[in-house]
Model the fold of this input.
Amino acid sequence: MKLDYKKSFFLCPKSPFHFDGTFYKPSHFPNKLKMEEWEPGKYWQTFRVDKELFVLQVENKGTTFKPKIKITLYSQKPLNKKELEKIKQEIIWRFELDIDLKEFNKLAKKDRRFYPVFKKWMGMRNVSKNTLYELLIIAIVLQNATVRRSQQMLDALLKKFGTKVVFDKKTLWAIWLPERLKNVSEKELRDLKIGYRAKFIKRLSQDFIEGKIDEKHLRNLEKEACKQELIKLYGVGPETARILLFEAFHHFDTFDHIAPWQQKIYSRLFYGKKLVSAEKICKDILKQYGKYSMLAVHYIWEDIFWRRRNENIPWLEKEIRL
DNA sequence: CATCAGGGCCCTG
DNA sequence: CAGGGCCCTGAT
Done:
């Protein structure tokens, strides 16, 4: 698919705003068929709004306390005012541009131990770069697999069903629409070596095609109600629901479940110990950060993966298990 | 060469 | 509510 049209505009995120922390998440492992690209101050990604596919180019044109970003939207056809406005609103929601972090920053200031981390990333957002359907696909290939295998599965799926998007002499990939899998058999999916996940993906896609899942509706629900709806989806359990609540629906108080591999990393990060019980970790974080528990953890989590880019952190390398 | 757990979830008893 | 099974891979 070629995106020949482009349209630029500016947005002013609520201050404070951390550009690179918001658009680049080092804890997210990249696959081969890239869906995004980042360099300091500049970012690209494929971006789906309803059924339409765009590429988003974002440039930093401001500072932490005078935030301003330039968006260039690549599209297949020219966009009218109404369409453009809809996309703008979607960008603001997905990247939390309007969010007020005052209360959270106040809590962070009281944290003697991690204040330097919070200060370094002040204004960072927790973003949903993808639609709910896309996030579900990503979450499912992460289930019960090591990182490398997840990458392989996602690449195989993208190669077969994804959309290769060309714009401005660059190329990025986008996840297909659920309709794309309508006449694809479970066996065909299995042949991509995604194992039992084929069944999940097939059934989820069918549910989306039949309109059984309404992302916009779920956005308006309370956290618990939203969680109940997500758990109903075939292939979505407590851990996937937690990820979605945070990443797709921007609920910050979702630090209620810790997987064993995360537990090991948190133990080191928060206590400098090999293993602390998941209950204690949850309790401590909840006590300190209350309704911002998951957001606080997100800052500390991304920070350690950011550091990993420049320094060797042996204990972390061991736990990541590529 | 075999065995096993891995960034969970479904299903059964 | 506990526990087995699931696809495939790389580690042991």
